[in-house]
Amino acid sequence: MNSINYLLLFLLVFALVLSFFKTGNIARIAKTFRILITLFGILFFGYWFFQKSLNKFLEKSMSIQVINRLNQPIDFYAIKVINKDKNQFLSKHIGNVRTNHYQIEYFDMSNSNEFWIVGYLPKNKMVYFTQHSVINKEADQKIEVKNYLNQSLKLSEKAEEVIEYLKLGNIGQSVIVTLTLLLLFLNIVLLTRKKVSSH
Questions:
Q1: 97: which strand partners?
Q2: How far is it, in rounded angstroms, from Cα 79 to Cα 163?
Q3: CATH: 2.160.10.10, 2.60.40.2890, 3.40.640.10, 3.30.1230.20. Which one for 62-151?
Q4: 69 Cβ contact list (under 8 Å, min separation 6)
Q5: What is the pLDDT of residues 25-37, one digit of tens each?
Q6: What gap in Å lies between CA 37 and CA 45, rounded to an integer?
Q7: Which residue in 14, 169, 180, 191 is deepest, having the highest Cβ count within 10 Å?
């Protein structure tokens, strides 16, 4: 999705440049391209927001249910370990889980036999880390967090690196999405104004 987002960003900038052509055959061709690019942008974001609104369930995936039994909300992450030696991980933000509540995340474990659960207090302080081996990949996992725990200082340091990378990626994606939506809005406004002025 990120690569399409970058492509769309470039196309929307190109569409804005094309808006400077106002007369002749070039203007008609430019307007056609602008309409196509804008429609592509609307369809892309429509599909993207629809996908985001769907349940996170994946077919043939293993669910990880994290239950917070501690006396305060904890911000949880799940990390699927693909290959520790090659630094191959897949991390997901489970969410901020209140006391005696739970959240569920899904992983396709076909290429992994291990996952980690990481918990943070506000101000980014890690207070929970556990390592879990998966024997039966068809059995859903239920993790009850009852104590502040760090099973491995070495692995928890690696987990922090993985989560920081996830956060940076999310920030970068947010900036690109915001900029792309702004450009899409500008293109829609310019196309609408053009229509109004032509009547």
A1: 74
A2: 8
A3: 2.60.40.2890
A4: 99, 100, 144, 145, 146
A5: 888 888 899 999 9
A6: 12
A7: 180
